[in-house]
Amino acid sequence: KAGVTQTPRYLIKTRGQQVTLSCSPISGHRSVSWYQQTPGQGLQFLFEYFSETQRNKGNFPGRFSGRQFSNSRSEMNVSTLELGDSALYLCASSLEVGMGETQYFGPGTRLLVL
Amino acid sequence: DAKTTQPTSMDCAEGRAANLPCNHSTISGNEYVYWYRQIHSQGPQYIIHGLKNNETNEMASLIITEDRKSSTLILPHATLRDTAVYYCIVRSPNAGGTSYGKLTFGQGTILTVHP
User: Mutation test of the interface with chain B: which of A47, A105, A111, A112, choosing the one with the most B Cβ atoms within 10 A?
Assistant: First the structure.
């Protein structure tokens, strides 16, 4: 079974631009979570989607948003990029809560904001 | 979710067993202990999880104390490729509300396997 895939793997943007990152979960997985990883803050939870609904959100500004499609694929968007948004963005998928919630992570998208 | 405490770093000789401890003294009865590792700049890799019985898979063994307040991840024959940051996470499998889909990562243990 193919793992979690994320595209693109690397991205360079400038301040003020917006960016969209994509995540394809493991086949059959319906929950997708997103995380941001920076050297200073470590791995931090952004949000989680299940059946196209955001069920949980971390403590990030409204510039960070996401969505999930009917095939469970998910995208996250960051608008008005700031230098501090430079990070590794990770997505993870799992079957669903209550059915063994092991999350499997993708390789991440490394975003550099100049 | 219960908070975990891990040593900042550990060393291990190649071919020897690596024993990584984790303290989770506030763990609740239904919370599982999960272990992930992250090799530099890659996504975290799931290793193993357990509730109260010891668990073993092809990657590692997980030993959970009887009172469940601590656990040890054992890599039986460490290789150079096991050099990574190891995260111990405690989580309820049926968590809902503000815990949906959320894993709380600490700083983890940097394991360095040397020749």
Answer: A105
